[in-house]
Design a protein that fits this description.
Layout (H helix, E strand, L loop, with lengths): L5 H10 L7 H17 L5 E6 L2 E7 L5 H17 L3 H10 L4 H4 L13 E6 L3 E9 L3 H22 L1
Protein name: UPF0303 protein ACFQZP_21160
InterPro entries: PduO/GlcC-like, PduO/GlcC-like_sf, YBR137W-like
Family: Belongs to the UPF0303 family.
Length: 159
């Protein structure tokens, strides 16, 4: 599975800007991710945050406490850089280096691996994160993107 190029990752973030994001939206998105992961027998943990508040968390069979640690590390990258954890890591690799070598951030606290995505609201900006951990990083990223695509399409139908 090839990693998406930087322009594709940037386009995902532009395209997946939400009109709003409420507590109920967090529940809807989180339960959608749980359903998708269960259908695929994916051993993942799922986390959704707005600001400093955890709005949704689920740990599916096969996930471990390590997945929660990965969630925290990937989420911190999104909070710091304002873009997906995969995009942040890709930008360092495009410069011929790695996040771990060049960010000057503690790798026990930050991980620029795929799976955490910014919750971006129209006219507001990044207000939170949605993160999945438990699969290889590209699969974590793709699961989040797929869920956000479905969620956004549903929001547009409702609004």
């Amino acid at each position: 599975m090839n990693a998406p190029e930087i322009p594709e990752l940037e386009e995902q973030e532009r395209r997946l800007t939400l009109p709003h994001f409420t507590y109920d939206d967090a529940w809807t998105l989180g339960t959608r991710l749980v359903e998708m992961a269960r259908d695929r027998h994916a051993p993942v943990a799922i986390d959704i945050r707005r600001g400093g508040q955890q709005l949704f968390h689920a740990a599916l069979p096969g996930s471990t406490p390590d997945n929660d640690a990965w969630i925290d590390r990937k989420r911190r990258v999104v909070e710091r850089y304002g873009c997906s954890s995969l995009l942040a890591g890709s930008r360092f690799r495009a410069k011929g280096t790695t996040f771990e070598e060049s960010s000057r951030l503690d790798p026990d606290v930050y991980a620029a691996h795929g799976g955490s995505f910014p919750i971006n609201v129209e006219g507001v900006g990044v207000i939170g994160t949605v993160t999945v951990s438990g699969l290889p990083q590209l699969q974590d990223h793709r699961l989040v993107v797929e869920a956000l695509e479905q969620f956004l399409a549903e929001q547009h139908r409702r609004d």
